[in-house]
Amino acid sequence: MSTEKKAIKYLTFGSPLMDMIVDVDSDFVNRNNLKLDTTIHGNSESGVFREARLYNPKYIAGGCSYNAIRVLNWMLPSDERNSVACLGSVGEDEDGVRYRNLLNEESIIPLFETFKGKETGKCAVVCLNRERTHITDLGASTLISDEFVEENWETIK
Predict the structure, then answer these.
(1) How does pLDDT run across 6-17, given as a tens digit for each residue?
(2) Does residue 73 contact residue 84 with C-beta atoms inside 8 Å?
(3) Staple 65 to which of 12, 18, 145, 151, CB 3.0 to 4.6 Å?
């Protein structure tokens, strides 16, 4: 992967969510009172995210706009890599670092405002056999400030 910086040609703006995809057993679903084949809002205090980490999750940089820009990046010729960027906000935590690293591995520039004391948004994708449910906590993903955008305007304009 080239680390050469290029001008940003493609930019997305949205809510970065660390997807945690886990295969679980029915005890996990029952313990956490989950209904399969649904999408629900959770919160970091619920414990479902902590418990999901015990099931050896696969981590993927997610969120609607980020999923779209990642597909675009896959379709670009190699000489246009490092011209794709994501604008958003994350928490100052392990998931924020992981999210940045995953984007860097794909030659996507993370332009993230970081919020101390906040958690990065996340989505646990809980899979049981052929069914799944999504538990989402938006966390810091909704907190980007006008000041951050203004400070980075020359980069993103």
Answers:
(1) 688 999 999 999
(2) yes
(3) 12
